[in-house]
């Protein structure tokens, strides 16, 4: 699921409906590769967490199975509209990208360690994600350090919000 954009009208109901569908289908994981918040506000990420844990209490599906949350920040999560006019106290209280808000918010809301590049294993398969480029993900460095840990007989899955050049973004060729 991408581009949830919580903070926009009706988006919370859409997100809840999709997550309930996934739960009914018995998914083991849900990937959300960015633009969870609409304007980079912590309150919008809190709304995502509230809906997530309403549908998956303690990260569990209706039948008690573990459902892994895999999220990455996109450009709107890193967006700072109005940031330049805000006081330092306002930035600290409201924006995900201020200081160490991202790691603290991820830990507080999801119980997850935030990292520019992350890796999780579900049923033996590796899933990875990269954060929005301004958050400085070093995917090549990560792979150089951890690539040998992957089972070469199995595929791995990678998600990111930024469109790879020459794929689906037409003349823009990626962000």
Task: Give me the secondary-structure topology.
Elements: H1 11-25, E1 29-33, H2 42-55, E2 68-72, H3 88-94, H4 101-110, E3 117-122, E4 125-130, H5 139-146, E5 156-160
Parallel strand pairs: 1-2, 4-5
Antiparallel strand pairs: 3-4
Helix pairs in contact: 1-2, 2-4
What does this entry look like structurally?
- The chain is globular, with a radius of gyration of 17 Å.
- The chain contains five helices and five strands.
- It has 175 residues and is an alpha/beta fold.
- 31% of the residues lie in helices and 15% in strands.
- The strands form two sheets. The protein has a three-stranded mixed sheet with strand order 3-4-5, with no helix packed on it.
- The mean pLDDT is 90.
- What fraction strand? 15-25%
Total count of strands: 5
The shape, in one word, is globular
Trace the largest sheet across and list its strands.
3-4-5
User: What is the N-to-C succession of helices and strands?
Assistant: HEHEHHEEHE
**What's the main sheet like?**
3 strands, mixed
Helix-and-strand structural type: alpha/beta
Helix coverage percent of residues? 25-40%
Low-confidence stretches: none
Using only CA atoms, what is the Rg?
A: 17 Å
Give the N-to-C terminal Cα separation: 19 Å
Number of H/I helices: 5
Mean pLDDT: 90
